[in-house]
Amino acid sequence: MANHKSAEKRNRQAQIRRVRNKINRKRMKTSIRSFEEAMETGSVDSAKDALREATIVIARTARKGTIHKKNASRKISRLAKRVNAMEGAA
């Protein structure tokens, strides 16, 4: 338990940040899941649209500091790689 005023404030701030990060992470995972569903349909156009949306959300999550920017770059790259492979096969 916090004994100083500054430590109590730090705990309050940490709780707010934890909730905010949880919301951002959940939003990112949901966009990736919708991308996965678009990939399963087999439509290249819907996969590209889902990739565009997921890219925006992942980049925003990194910009807010919830995930590292290189982690975001890696996620975006892997999703784009899957769309490109699907497009090449079609």
UniProtKB/TrEMBL annotation:
GO terms for cellular component: cytosol; small ribosomal subunit. Residues 1-11 have a biased composition (Basic and acidic residues). The keyword Ribosomal protein applies. Residues 1-29 are annotated as: Disordered. Residues 15-29 have a biased composition (Basic residues). It holds the Pfam family Ribosomal_S20p. SUPFAM superfamilies: Ribosomal protein S20 (SSF46992). InterPro entries: Ribosomal_bS20 (IPR002583), Ribosomal_bS20_sf (IPR036510). The keyword Cytoplasm does not apply. GO terms for molecular function: small ribosomal subunit rRNA binding; structural constituent of ribosome. GO terms for biological process: translation. Keywords: Ribonucleoprotein, Ribosomal protein, RNA-binding, rRNA-binding. Binds directly to 16S ribosomal RNA. Belongs to the bacterial ribosomal protein bS20 family. This is Small ribosomal subunit protein bS20. It comes from Desulforhopalus singaporensis.
